[in-house]
Design brief:
- This protein is an alpha+beta fold.
- The chain has a single domain, classed as Nuclear Transport Factor 2, Chain: A (Roll), CATH 3.10.450.50.
- It has 4 helices and 6 strands, in the order αααββαββββ.
- The chain has helices at about 5-15, 25-45, 45-50, 80-95; strands at about 55-65, 75-80, 105-115, 120-130, 135-145, 150-160.
- It has a 6-stranded mixed sheet with strand order 2-1-6-5-4-3, sandwiched between helices.
- Strand 3 and strand 4 (about 120-130) form a beta hairpin.
- The radius of gyration is 16 Å and the shape is globular.
- About 25% of the residues are buried.
Length: about 170
């Protein structure tokens, strides 16, 4: 259940990363494949399948400050639980989401995937977005906490998160 204990664990998990990397190459490969599949599904706008990669109780978090902190007490670009993600996908499918009319076309690169104990995963990303005749570039690193091979928490750390981002309406 997403409650105070869940949020405390989120803050704890993303405040200090585990020291030890996962030693099993098969686990590292499975995590890499999961992140690459997530990127492909987002690029193909297969949002329902993308959401299927997430746990029933999940958080998608894009901090608005370098170093993140506590998402309940600091401004965030996005801080969505599963219900809000479902709402976002619904709005995108209506065709009435003005910030995605016309829809963005994207391509993502995921690299430097590191897998730590307790299925904490860190990767770097680059997203090129084309929409309404304009190209935008997004980059940073993502932190994931997996549970039963589902994404329980995704933290997207944009390198320019504390700058004027002008309505970042896509899902990173």
């Amino acid at each position: 259940m997403i409650d105070e204990a869940f949020y405390l664990k989120v803050v704890e998990s993303f405040s200090s990363w585990p020291e030890r990397e996962a030693g099993d190459p098969a686990i590292r490969e499975q995590c890499r494949m999961l992140l690459e599949r997530e990127a492909r599904l987002l690029d193909q706008r297969r949002f329902e399948e993308w959401l299927g990669l997430y746990a029933a109780e999940c958080v998608y978090w894009v901090p608005a400050t370098p170093g993140a902190g506590d998402p309940r007490r600091e401004v965030a670009v996005a801080f969505d639980d599963r219900r809000r993600l479902e709402d976002r996908i619904f709005r995108l499918r209506t065709g009435s989401a003005w910030s995605q009319t016309p829809p963005s076309r994207t391509v993502r690169l995921v690299s430097n995937v590191e897998v730590f104990e307790n299925l904490m995963v860190r990767s770097t990303f680059f997203v090129q977005e084309f929409r309404a005749g304009e190209t935008r570039l997004w980059s940073g690193w993502c932190g994931y906490r997996l549970k039963n091979w589902k994404i329980e928490v995704k933290q997207v750390n944009l390198i320019d998160c504390d700058q004027a981002l002008r309505n970042p309406s896509l899902i990173f």
